[in-house]
Amino acid sequence: MTFPDDPLSLEIVARGVPLVDDRLLLELTNDLHTANDLTRSAAREGFFARLLSRATGRDRIRERTVRDRMLSSQKLTLRWLTHLSERMTVTDLVVAEVSEEVHDVKKRIERVEASSQWSAAAIGELGAILARLAGDTGRFLSDHERRLGALEAGLALDRAARRWRHPRPDPQLPWLVGAVLLAREVASGPAGTYAFTGGETLMQRQLVERMLQDPPVPWFEGVKSVPAMLTAVVRDLPSRNHRLMVAELLGLGVADELSDAAGPLTSALARAAELAVAGSDPDDAARAALRDSSGSGDLFLPSSLSVEQLVRRIVAEQFAEARQRRIRLRKHAPEADASGGGYGGQDGAGRDAQ
After folding, report:
1. Is 247 left (phi over 0), alpha (psi -120 to 50) or beta?
2. pLDDT tens digits for 228-241?
């Protein structure tokens, strides 16, 4: 989406931002569902609606237009995915989630006859590319591989923290957004994989210590109001495209089952950015976002936090969300494995994508 009053292109806005390729890959699932919904919508037309479409030729025009657009889109998408598999800039968790979505769409295609959907051959090719990505990004952690897994997790955490500390190019994001995206990147990658197999306390502690000891800008003193922090984020994002990008990186526009595990601080940050895109004042957006996102129990969000409390909450929320997403994938693993793909694995724990 572009805005007439925003002089910055989408490419410029996204430069240097972590997890952009992850979110682009998740956006692919929306394209797949759009193709499926178009076909199902046509199939649900009533008798006389379909008769009128045939009499006027509207059905042929619609079918040809949708088919041509989908074919063009899938060719470009497959080309981009091939390039992505060479650059290896996506996390294993997102690859596993998209692979599972592709598996589901492929089953629907086999049940529905429609030339306007992604062709079965193209879906097969898409699955093959994703399988290659999954093979490169995921690692099965059996007992004798845990030491290697811990080393890989530590190196991935270190690389992400160094990019956070010295981004090239600098995306000019507010410090709170940068901190959340760092924790999200770490939790979605090898460190999150290792955490899921029993090393979560260690990984969270290492990340919290690294963030507190070596931030890109000095942390604030004392305690800070959570509404004030959200207001500052919305105000400091330089354009509507920046706000929309941040909201989508944190789950806006992704299927509910892929985004409903977000913690209250993450949800409030995404919601505030979304409301600001719609035109809300930063203060109003922050207050409304907190009302929508916080509650009791696990959803409780204090009105103010110290630096250490804030960093621990950021890290805990991202690891908790990644853990729930991995649990969801594991529940789908038996069915996906039976057809030769998906998440889960032989001998059980520890494989996020294979």
Report:
1. alpha
2. 999 999 999 988 98
DSSP structure string for 67-97: HHHHHHHHHHHHHHHHHHHHH--S-HHHHHH
Q: Which position has the token pair 């909201």? A: 247
Encode pLDDT of 7-25 as tens digits.
Answer: 556 666 666 677 776 776 6
Cβ atoms of 13 and 241 closer than 8 Å = yes
**Entry pTM:** 0.68
DSSP 144: G
DSSP state of 223: E
Three-state secondary structure of 271-316: HHHHHHHCCCCHHHHHHHHHHHHCCCHHHCCCCEEEHHHHHHHHHH
**Measured between alpha carbons, how far is 99 from 329 in angstroms, rounded to an integer?**
10
- The DSSP result for 29-50, as a single string, is HHHHHHHHHHHHHHHT--HHHH
In the block, which residue shows the tokens 């529905």?
A: 112
Tokens standing for residue 229: 């922090």
Phi, psi of 217 (to 5 degrees): -135, 155
Burial 333-353 (b: 16+ CB within 10 A, else e): beebeeeebbbbbeeeebbbb
